[in-house]
Amino acid sequence: MQSYHEFLDEVLIPEIELQDRITELGEQISQDYAGQTVHLICILKGGVMFLTDLMRCISIPHTIDFMAISSYGLGVRSSSGQVRLTMDLHEDIHGQNVILVEDIIDSGNTLSSVLNLLGARKPASLKVCTLLDKVERREVDIKADYVGFEIPNKYVFGYGLDLDQYYRELPFIGVVNAEKYTPSE
Ligand code: PRP
Fold it and tell me: Structure pTM?
């Protein structure tokens, strides 16, 4: 198992910048929904760290739930861009103010499918909060309501984002030097 130091090209977003921006996002959400409650939905697994830090910065009453979707092999989506639900929510979202919490929007296919699915369940409102937005890679016309950072088209990991399922625990967003990275067996 390689130490990340062996293939880290650069720290794209240091821990302090992540936490400062998450604090701002939490405050913004708290203001926007003042006097109401919100229901945060996290898509496993990448969004987990962001969700737990974001929650601590939201001062209005809120609840959480989780869902999982299939990734079609090594991150490759089906040609239609559809994703398959592998773990559904535990609670009904009908009439709730839902905020979908994501670690990253890349092509936008995941978000597009999930929004269709959740929208059909008639929440009172449905918004998206993503930590990272790789705008250059977008394949579908979709935008998040709350964006932590717009990032360039680089191979990133850490803070929930994995490399072959590892390194999610790192407190910063790093860029991989693909020539130096060897996937674990
Ligand atoms: C990542 C991320 C988003 C999706 C974004 O999940 O968490 O859900 O990819 O890509 P898209 O905009 O091109 O659809 P991933 O499939 O890597 O699973 P993980 O969250 O379990 O790491």
Answer: 0.93
